[in-house]
Specification:
Layout: H1 4-22, E1 27-32, H2 35-40, H3 42-55, E2 61-66, E3 78-81, E4 87-90, H4 95-107, E5 116-118, E6 123-124
Parallel strand pairs: 1-2
Antiparallel strand pairs: 1-3, 3-4, 4-5, 5-6
Helix pairs in contact: 3-4
Length: 126
């Protein structure tokens, strides 16, 4: 049987996760969660994003999801939108790449070009 303290702890953890997804921050992380993305591991990527932001106490980052981006061969896709509105799309993201994207791009503002996809031009950067 679960105690009242256990229920409170579960509630607090759930509220912290919700806060990460609804924060009105200056940086946004968007995970592609279409069918192809989910099949390629997007759920694990989303969880890694939430875990890494929570671990680093980055509550000002807005986390959201989107449907299919039409780039199935590059899934899972993660888009980072900075405070100035510049968008960077990362391809073939896995949980280990998430950690590096959060540290390098979200925290330090350094794009990792070898993992990006230039959608506007339909070509890979880097």
């Amino acid at each position: 049987m679960i105690s009242l303290d256990d229920l409170r702890r579960i509630r607090d953890e759930a509220l912290a996760t919700i806060a990460l997804r609804e924060a009105g921050g200056s940086v946004q992380v968007i995970v592609g969660m279409g069918t192809c993305g989910i099949a390629a591991g997007a759920r694990e990527v989303m969880q890694a994003v939430l875990d890494e932001l929570e671990k680093r106490r980055l509550s000002e980052v807005l986390v959201s999801q989107t449907g299919c981006m039409g780039l199935c061969a590059q899934e899972p896709l993660v888009e980072v939108v900075d405070a100035e509105g510049r968008r960077v799309l990362y391809k073939k993201v896995d949980p280990s790449r998430v950690r590096q994207i959060i540290v390098e791009h979200v925290v330090n503002g350094r794009i990792i070009p070898e993992w990006t996809l230039n959608v506007a031009e339909g070509r890979e950067d880097g």
